[in-house]
Amino acid sequence: MTAKRGQNATRLDDPATAPPTVDHVLITRFNLPTPGPEGRVRQREGWLTGRADLFEKYCLPSVRAQTNQNFRWLVYLDPDSPEWLVQRLAPFVRDQVFEPIYRAEVTPAIILDDIRAGRTTPSADLLTTNLDNDDGLAADFVDRLQRIPPRGPRSALYLASGLILGPDGLFLRVDKLNAFCSVRETWNDPVTCWADWHTLLPRSMPSVTVSGPPAWLQVVHGSNVSNRVRGRLVASNGYAALFPTLPTDLDQPTRTDLLRDRLLSGPARLLRESSRAAVKSTLLFLVGKRGVDRIKEWRSGTTE
């Protein structure tokens, strides 16, 4: 029997309820106030309603479906969130699916205070994982992540393979520095997975990237700030067990569709992404993180 998030544990030998060997915390920004281009997008009418829909459709059920339930889930929300959102999330809070935390801002010290506040039986290590509120996890994501051996007192962890759901179908992608980043570290001065951009964590600590079946799901939709369709087109029917939140009515690509994607569409996407990555890397070198954010904010303002 596998315990579900929000249900009482029934067996101590169940892998979903066994004593943890690491303090694992998922961290999600729901509508936390942020400056820059993301803040502009979040202020648009309808953004919050759409994001709540995506959260309930993809993110939340994927966390509840985890085969290993030895983790906590902190969800950060704006203290000025509308009452309808608070009430909409209330049943999941009552079921202890996640812990809502209302903050106007979140600093490294505040994150650690929030993590320590719910700590019961201490473990030697802390494992933190970033989870965006419109994305999903494979059912064994937590279990696979916790089984990665630590590499020194602190290391960034990545499960490289994932799926991207876009308007034109499902795509398999390998991203060695993806947004589902984790940091495993001792409790001696921890920094968490929010210490830096997910692509930059390896600059300040050793990193471990693990291959395998798809471990995460990104959903490309109209209010995405930076997600785009990448990878290669695949049939969704082979991933239903790992991703129970995948839509069941997706059109399955034909052999012709797969061949066209392999020979034409896929290489074109790869070329575009390589160009974007090169430009971003150059900008990061020239103007730094703040400069890149200012450029994004300017572009966001010109497209509104």
Descriptive labels:
304 residues, alpha/beta, Spore Coat Polysaccharide Biosynthesis Protein SpsA, Chain A, 7-stranded mixed sheet, 19% strand, globular, disordered C terminus
Please estimate the helix content: 25-40%
Uncertain stretches: 7-19, 295-304
- Predict the CATH topology: Spore Coat Polysaccharide Biosynthesis Protein SpsA, Chain A
User: What Rg do the Cα atoms give?
Assistant: 19 Å
Q: Structural class of the helix and strand makeup?
A: alpha/beta
Note the quaternary state here. single chain
N/C terminus separation = 50 Å
CATH architecture: Alpha-Beta Complex
Percentage of residues in strands: 15-25%
Query: Could you tell me the mean pLDDT?
Result: 83
The count of strands amounts to 12
Domains counted in the coordinates: how many? 1
Shape: globular
Number of helices: 6
Topology as H/E string?
A: EHHEHEHEEHEEEEEEEH
Largest sheet: 7 strands, mixed
Region (Disordered): 1-20
Organism: Cryobacterium zongtaii
Pfam family, one: Rhamno_transf
Protein name: Rhamnosyl transferase
Task: Sum this structure up briefly.
By secondary structure, the chain is α/β, with parallel strands linked by helices. The chain has one domain (23-253): Spore Coat Polysaccharide Biosynthesis Protein SpsA, Chain A.
Please give a structural write-up.
Residues 1-10 have a biased composition (Polar residues). Pfam families: Rhamno_transf. This is Rhamnosyl transferase. The chain is an alpha/beta fold and 304 residues long. It has helices at 36-42, 47-64, 83-94, 108-117, 141-146, 255-302, and strands at 23-29, 72-77, 99-102, 125-130, 136-137, 154-159, 161-166, 169-174, 182-186, 207-210, 216-219, 232-234. The protein has a single domain, classed as Spore Coat Polysaccharide Biosynthesis Protein SpsA, Chain A. It contains six helices and twelve strands. The strands form two sheets. A seven-stranded mixed sheet has the order 3-2-1-4-9-6-10. Strands 5-11-7-8-12 form a five-stranded mixed sheet. The longest helix has 48 residues, at 255-302. Mean pLDDT is 83; it is low at 7-19 and 295-304.
